[in-house]
């Protein structure tokens, strides 16, 4: 990376962006690790976020920072900090009313009916950010089950790459902006006013329904995802796949489908359905949204293989 004259570390202001081989190698490592092909053509945006970590660590540039990421002792902690910078965590409670209507009117009644004998339900929010999505699902299930809730074994899992977002999720404390879709009576019923007078704290009975884990979605492809992440009645993976390369998206959806129980449901973001998914999942058209369902036939197993870096090193710019 080329700094202005006299600079030997990341400055506090943004220099004119000059992509070079060192930055390209770092970008390739980021895309390979996170799958975020979103940054393939957004060098300036990625650089702006990398600069924050360079300032924090005091490292002189991309080459030194890549060495830090590869450091056996300090690399994983730095990856966690970097992933918190580069992931996009926009979320709010009951986002996409049409999908929550489909959950309430069709999807969850189907699951509850199929599981009425064993009274067990497993759901996974993949890419849950700060937890609004799985908490919304838990609130909805509490409403639907009512007094029967204690008789059910609910396993609601939220996973994300961003450890900072997961820490927020575990606290269950949100700004009014994240609660903007809630009517006043629901806000007061499900949340407590925060001590700061500006935030709201999810009531403990709702927080207790969801557990959170740091997981990389690419673990489904390279064989590192926990084996117990399986047999889900419902998987929500909404507005996550838009950041991945199309070839990786198809593999991820196949892998998600393989983690569904027979008859299990998959909900994606509104912009993410693809006709190719109909080759291995049943397409269910519902008012205002499309859902997918796994049939009874076993899905062909995909051999684990890592995601190949898709960002090739670029030539250094001319002097």
Q: What keyword list fits this structure?
A:
single chain, 319 residues, alpha/beta, Rossmann fold, 2 domains, seven-stranded mixed beta sheet, three-stranded antiparallel beta sheet, 11 helices, disordered N terminus, protein-glutamate O-methyltransferase activity, EC 2.1.1.80, CheR_N, transferase, CheR_N_sf
Explain what the structure shows.
With 319 residues, the chain is α/β, with parallel strands linked by helices. The chain has two domains: 66 residues, no CATH class; 197 residues, 3-Layer(aba) Sandwich (Rossmann fold). Helix content is 37%, strand content 17%. The chain contains eleven helices and ten strands. Strands 6-2-1-7-8-10-9 form a seven-stranded mixed beta sheet. Helix 11 links the parallel strand 7 and strand 8. Helix 1 packs parallel to helix 3. The radius of gyration is 22 Å and the shape is globular. The N terminus and C terminus are likely disordered. This is protein-glutamate O-methyltransferase. One of its GO terms (biological process) is methylation. Pfam families: CheR (PF01739), CheR_N (PF03705). GO terms for molecular function: protein-glutamate O-methyltransferase activity. Its EC number is 2.1.1.80.
